[in-house]
């Protein structure tokens, strides 16, 4: 997997997802609590890629433990609690502390990605061969 992993392409994927969901779901005064995770997860995934240079873990808890700034942990844990234990709660007041972090971080990551060099492109022949072999088994 690491042979075909592209830091730059992965960062573009995640940061575009975060930016689109942020713009679409988190700009009002009242927002759906679960939508914060539609933005936090890809932002934290970007942070992981920048720090570790590997694909991010799937578990949000692992990303949160490794990448979420400590000063946001209380607010994010409250949102997690709402999402998991009170599914009937649809909307909550916007969490300015998290929104401020997202505003700053999305812009920061976009600037980093824009200036990144594209890494060495892999030879797709081996992957294509494996795919065709599995397809025609």
Query: Could you give the count of β-strands?
Result: 2
Mean pLDDT: 92
* Poorly predicted segments: none
The biggest sheet amounts to: 2 strands, antiparallel
C-alpha-based Rg, rounded: 18 Å
- Gap between N and C termini: 22 Å
* Approximate strand percentage: under 5%
Structural class: mainly alpha
Descriptive overview:
- The structure is a single chain.
- The protein has helices spanning 7-25, 35-52, 60-67, 73-85, 96-115, 125-135; strands spanning 30-32, 91-93.
- The protein has a two-stranded antiparallel ribbon with strand order 1-2.
- The chain is 65% helix and 4% strand.
- Helix 1 (7-25) runs antiparallel to helix 2 (35-52) and helix 2 (35-52) crosses helix 5 (96-115).
- It is built from 6 helices and 2 strands; from the N terminus they run H-E-H-H-H-E-H-H.
- With 137 residues, the chain is mainly alpha-helical.
Short description:
The chain is mostly helical and 137 residues long. Helices cover 65% and strands 4% of the residues.
């Amino acid at each position: 997997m690491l042979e075909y992993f592209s830091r730059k392409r992965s960062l573009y994927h995640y940061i575009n997802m975060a930016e689109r969901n942020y713009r679409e779901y988190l700009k009002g005064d009242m927002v759906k609590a679960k939508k914060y995770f539609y933005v936090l997860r890809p932002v934290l995934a970007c942070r992981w890629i920048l720090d570790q240079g590997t694909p991010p873990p799937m578990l949000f808890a692992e990303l949160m433990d490794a990448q979420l700034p400590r000063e946001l942990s209380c607010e994010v844990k409250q949102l997690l609690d709402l999402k998991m234990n009170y599914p009937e709660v649809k909307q909550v007041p916007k969490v300015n502390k998290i929104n401020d972090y997202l505003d700053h971080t999305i812009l920061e990551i976009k600037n980093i990605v824009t200036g990144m060099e594209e890494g060495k492109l892999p030879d797709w022949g081996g992957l294509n061969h494996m795919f065709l072999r599995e397809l025609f088994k």
